[in-house]
Automatic annotation (TrEMBL):
<feature type="domain" description="PCI">
    <location>
        <begin position="184"/>
        <end position="352"/>
    </location>
</feature>
<dbReference type="InterPro" id="IPR000717">
    <property type="entry name" value="PCI_dom"/>
</dbReference>
<dbReference type="Pfam" id="PF22037">
    <property type="entry name" value="PSD13_N"/>
</dbReference>
<dbReference type="InterPro" id="IPR054179">
    <property type="entry name" value="PSD13_N"/>
</dbReference>
<dbReference type="GO" id="GO:0005634">
    <property type="term" value="C:nucleus"/>
</dbReference>
<protein>
    <recommendedName>
        <fullName>PCI domain-containing protein</fullName>
    </recommendedName>
</protein>
<dbReference type="GO" id="GO:0005829">
    <property type="term" value="C:cytosol"/>
</dbReference>
<dbReference type="GO" id="GO:0006511">
    <property type="term" value="P:ubiquitin-dependent protein catabolic process"/>
</dbReference>
<dbReference type="Pfam" id="PF01399">
    <property type="entry name" value="PCI"/>
</dbReference>
<keyword id="KW-0647">Proteasome</keyword>
<dbReference type="InterPro" id="IPR036390">
    <property type="entry name" value="WH_DNA-bd_sf"/>
</dbReference>
<comment type="similarity">
    <text>Belongs to the proteasome subunit S11 family.</text>
</comment>
<dbReference type="GO" id="GO:0008541">
    <property type="term" value="C:proteasome regulatory particle, lid subcomplex"/>
</dbReference>
<dbReference type="GO" id="GO:0005198">
    <property type="term" value="F:structural molecule activity"/>
</dbReference>
<dbReference type="InterPro" id="IPR035298">
    <property type="entry name" value="PSMD13"/>
</dbReference>
Amino acid sequence: MTSTTTSQPPPKLVLDKFIALALSNTPPELHPYFESFKALYTKKLWHQLTNKLFEFFDHPLAKPYRVDTFERFVRDFEGKINQLKLVEMGTKVSKDIDNPQTHLNFLTSLLSRIDTKKSPEAHVLLLATIAHAKLVFGDLEGTKTDMDAAWEVLDTLEGVDGGVNAAYYGVAADYYKAKAEYAPYYRHSLLYLACVDPEKDMSTEERLIRAHDLAISAFLADTIYNFGELLMHPILDAFNGTPHEWIKKLLFTFNEGNIGKFEALAPLFPQEPILQENYAFLRQKICLMALIESVFKRPANDRTIGFQTIAEETRLPVDEVEHLVMKGLSLKLIRGSLDQVEEKAYISWVQPRVLSREQIGGLAKRLDEWVQKLNGVEQRIAAEVE
């Protein structure tokens, strides 16, 4: 009985044909790579072959040949190599595909060939990459769907590769930036920076853009009143020596609750129209930060503050102080109560935050005073015992 199945060419013939075409169609500088591909493939040294492929994909002259090499060569043995490395290769070469639909088809086809259970990290990385592609092409709904699917897997994993985390948090930050949702952008962008080395992985321009966007989101997010993590991050050094350096100063001004410095920097707001447009909100925010600072610098046993004092320290009319304190209480920036009749605020707790050198100096002074009081009490007790 004769079989009617069409036989596939032996793998060696397919390999020889690919290598022969590659050697005839690529620059001489790339030929050693293809010769190495053939040798390593023949010996079934998949790990070494993977590393050599990454070297090839990173070569400046290889860009026009990366997609073809992946589709006609790597796909032949993709099941034999580390799936995360395979996806890293796939996401790298997909950047060379300009047509949006072809780009997405390439990535979704690769996703269909990845086993989520065997390689969940590869699955997350590819989903995040697809989400980013959809974001670039304007499909916000599709982006969110793939982000959620990626997070569903990522949230169950431990010891995740930094590149996988960076891919997820990077696209999440970009998504919330596109939606102008400042607080989620701020959180995800800082998480993204925790997964990369800005000096190595980002250009000077990219670092400045990231620092700028983080600062703007910190200013405009209605739930963020603690800039500590950002103030400690070296990404802010991107502002140094640029026309945007005043934005860095403004961040520290907010953290200190320094209304005088805020008013001194306010004339620069027209350089950032979004800050100028939201001046009223920023003014309220700096007043809240000033209130926090006012409470913080007082001893724990002396946090009953009159409305008149708060008005002077926040530069607000007295009749607006009650609303300001209530806002601080509702945002959980402070805890306590109000006495409208006596026009006093009783504050029992203030939100912890990163301190400037001046604030640390003030704290050290108060600690020193506290120690001196304890020593005085100890001396009196000792004298009474004697």
